[in-house]
């Protein structure tokens, strides 16, 4: 048998994140990216990893987004996420099937799990990536992420260890179109753990304040330093609410403490792709625009006619946002009332 024939098939894995049976959209974005990587890596296949309890139906969705096989560990111990059983389960799969590349969403759960897996299987991990490609010379994963506070972009290669792991921010990758008739193979694997093996118990869930999820919002009204202070965001919140959207912000506003970090859009914040993005008092620094350039329609409001944000906006209003925003609110509410 030739050496080429003995070479194992490169597997590109994607972790399918789910909570209470609902898959996170970043999983499908990653499957789309895995398909593009597979096209650059000859002979490779795209596969998915799914953990939970009574979640086998999610595998059908994974096939539609490009997975040829789904490795499923279905166990009552996995009904809610706990780091130890999830980390052990996925690490066993990695050790057994030896994937070449493993992609995980850079969500709260994904960041926690990915670092655990990388530690257990003794490989590297590039976190919070914004771009993925196959290096044409070495034919390995080239994972790009912001560094030095978003002022530089670093492309990282994992030459010696496998799998090559990366977490990727939600919404930095395009959502692929699902293939309705796609099918694949479901391979079930055991967890081989008991409750007594797990040192952490979930006693009860104490609901916290509802967290906004700006990554998947259709409408975002974002403010920058031009808003002038925390009180200005009350006005933006009123406009966002009238449009059925959420409030975003640039990094200087977050650093100033005017609004919470969960609202940050940009290179060191969230990447968004809304249908409508209203940028109020935002100058348009590249660290911010890289996070919202995928919006379908951008409306910029700024008193400076030379603000860089106007160069990428679909529509622009030069004026005082404290005059423009109230008028927009009036018109939106008037349209809703049939006036």
Can you characterise this structure?
With 339 residues, the protein is an alpha/beta fold. It has two domains: 11-197, Rossmann fold, CATH 3.40.50; 214-333, TPP-binding domain (Rossmann fold, 3-Layer(aba) Sandwich), CATH 3.40.50.1220. Helices cover 27% and strands 25% of the residues. The chain contains nine helices and 17 strands. It has helices at 3-6, 25-40, 58-64, 83-97, 108-121, 232-242, 251-255, 286-289, 321-336, and strands spanning 11-16, 18-19, 22-23, 45-52, 69-74, 101-105, 125-129, 131-134, 141-147, 152-157, 164-168, 185-188, 219-223, 246-249, 276-280, 297-302, 315-318. The strands form four sheets. It has a seven-stranded parallel β-sheet, with helices on both faces. Helix 6 (232-242) links the parallel strand 13 (219-223) and strand 14 (246-249). Helix 4 (83-97) packs across helix 5 (108-121) and helix 6 runs parallel beside helix 9. The radius of gyration is 22 Å and the shape is globular. The mean pLDDT is 90.
């Amino acid at each position: 048998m030739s050496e080429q024939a003995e070479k194992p098939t490169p597997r590109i894995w994607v972790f399918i994140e789910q909570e209470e049976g609902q898959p996170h959209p970043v999983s499908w974005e990653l499957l789309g990216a895995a398909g593009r990587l597979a096209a650059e890596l000859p002979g490779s296949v795209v596969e998915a990893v799914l953990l939970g309890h009574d979640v086998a139906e999610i595998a059908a969705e994974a096939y539609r987004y490009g997975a040829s096989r789904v490795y499923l560990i279905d166990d009552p111990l996995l009904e809610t996420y706990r780091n130890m059983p999830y980390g052990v389960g996925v690490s066993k799969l990695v050790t057994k099937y030896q994937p070449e590349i493993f992609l995980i969403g850079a969500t709260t759960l994904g960041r926690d799990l990915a670092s655990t897996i990388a530690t257990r299987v003794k490989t590297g991990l590039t976190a919070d990536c914004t771009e993925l490609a196959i290096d044409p010379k070495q034919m390995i994963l080239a994972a790009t992420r912001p560094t030095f506070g978003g002022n530089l972009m670093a492309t990282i290669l994992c030459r010696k260890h496998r799998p090559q792991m990366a977490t990727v921010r939600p919404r930095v990758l395009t959502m692929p179109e699902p293939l309705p008739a796609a099918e694949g193979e479901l391979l079930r694997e055991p967890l081989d753990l008991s409750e007594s093996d797990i040192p952490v118990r979930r006693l009860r869930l104490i609901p916290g304040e509802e967290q906004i999820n700006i990554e998947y919002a259709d409408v975002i009204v974002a403010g920058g330093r031009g808003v002038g202070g925390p009180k200005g965001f009350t006005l933006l919140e009123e406009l966002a609410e009238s449009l059925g959207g959420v409030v975003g912000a640039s990094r200087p506003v977050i650093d100033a403490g005017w609004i919470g970090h969960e609202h940050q859009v940009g290179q060191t914040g969230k990447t968004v792709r809304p249908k409508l993005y209203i940028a109020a008092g935002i100058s348009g620094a590249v660290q911010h625009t890289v996070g919202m350039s995928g919006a379908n329609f951008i409306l910029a409001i700024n008193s400076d006619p030379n603000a860089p944000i106007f160069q990428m906006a679909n529509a622009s209003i030069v004026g005082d946002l404290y005059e423009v925003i109230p008028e927009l609110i009036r018109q939106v509410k008037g349209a809703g009332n049939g006036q």
